[in-house]
Amino acid sequence: MRIDVVSIFPGYLQALDLSLVGKARRDGLLDLRVHDLREWTTDRHRTVDDTPFGGGAGMVMRPDVWGLAVDDVLAEGPARRVLLVPTPSGERLTQRTVEDLAGADQLVLACGRYEGIDARVAENYRARGDVEVREFSLGDYVLNGGEVAALVVVEAVARLLPGVIGNPASLVEESHGTAGLLEYPVYTKPPSWAGLEVPEVLTSGHHGNVARWRREQALARTAERRPDMVAALDPAGLDRTDRAA
Ligand code: ADE
Fold first, then answer.
1. 117-138 pLDDT, tens per residue?
2. 140 labelled as ligand-binding?
3. ipTM (interface predicted TM)
4. Global pTM value
5. What is the whole-number distance in angstroms between the Cα of residue 142 and the centre of ligand 1?
């Protein structure tokens, strides 16, 4: 997969040289390119923004500069390309969306700053029809720009690409996976620490009991922390013991 990130702060994306994403890039599993939006400015001051039509505080990013940048980085050919625009007024990013994005051939992340990017940029690429456009939000809070959201998308998508995670089994049981539950608590050595013991069932060697206990913990945790997720569970997927927990 190819991912292009365009930002006025390309240095923000340096973290993508590290850890699993960095390794995926070095192994050739992910073709990640970070660009400075100012490369597409045409004036001496390398201007990327201007005052908002209609008045109001702050500055808006110019569509002409963004248009040149996006046109340039979009890959040629019939590949599935998605233009992603992080914004607090976008749709909430979920694991479902991330799974869908992992199937694309190219993602282009347009990181806005200030009051955001002129709305005609998303409108223009939507109208063209040869690239999907998704405006997304990380959550109900406001960041200073889209760079952190781009880091989030790259990491969440990259770990789903074939070969990136050494043990694909670790993708199976995690929170926001198919079970619709948060993940159960996990423990390792030492068995006793700070006066706290590892739950006995986990050292019992009884796989059925371990699985049962984990399921109960996941349900209890989800009920307490994310009642919205419990409400969305398919009742047909719950068994009698689940209801008791
Ligand atoms: N840019 C600013 N705030 C944001 C948010 N909550 N999610 C995604 N991008 C943003």
1. 999 999 999 999 999 999 999 9
2. yes
3. 0.97
4. 0.93
5. 5
